[in-house]
Prior knowledge:
- The chain is α+β, with helices and mostly antiparallel strands.
- 17% of the residues lie in helices and 29% in strands.
- It contains 3 helices and 9 strands; from the N terminus they run E-H-E-H-E-H-E-E-E-E-E-E.
- The chain has helices at residues 37-49, 68-74, 84-93; strands at 29-30, 55-57, 79-80, 96-99, 109-114, 119-130, 137-144, 150-154, 163-170.
- It starts with 28 loop residues before the first strand and ends in a 5-residue tail after the last strand.
Amino acid sequence: MPEIATGSASQNPNTRIALYTRRGNEIDNVQGWELSNFQWSQLQTNLNRFGPPLVKFLSKDGCPVYNCHGLTFGSRRTSIEASNRMINLILDDDGFDEIQPRDVQEGDVVVYIDEDGEIQHSGIVVAMTQADILGLSVPKVWSKWGHAQEAVHHFQTSPYENVTAKYYRMRRWRP
């Protein structure tokens, strides 16, 4: 049962849900129910800056309830704290192991890390597409761009700049 904030939505718009890793550690999260003016502006910025063939937006609207980590690890139910501590806890507790880019397949998770080693973004690999005449395959990723749109995109195309992709596969299902 969600912990509902008291008062009207404009007074305290946030709620949270009980969310735990497989090992029983609590996952910090918040469900926001409003977008700020800046967040609204990012919706149109993304639509204008990115597009086919490298990005397919799944809607023109944003949803403040969940972020990219909430899509990847929380089934679109909530925004998960965007910190190395939290995302690494989820990866470890839920049985994910890092894999080599050459081994990536549909269903794997991608985590984007900036030059300072901070996790900036995450998503789910939904397809492998042929990249060139050499027959190399590259991942297509389903992710949520902040509180903006969900997108299916080439793994290197996103508003997150100067990031490196690391891939994970759930291999251990017991805590």
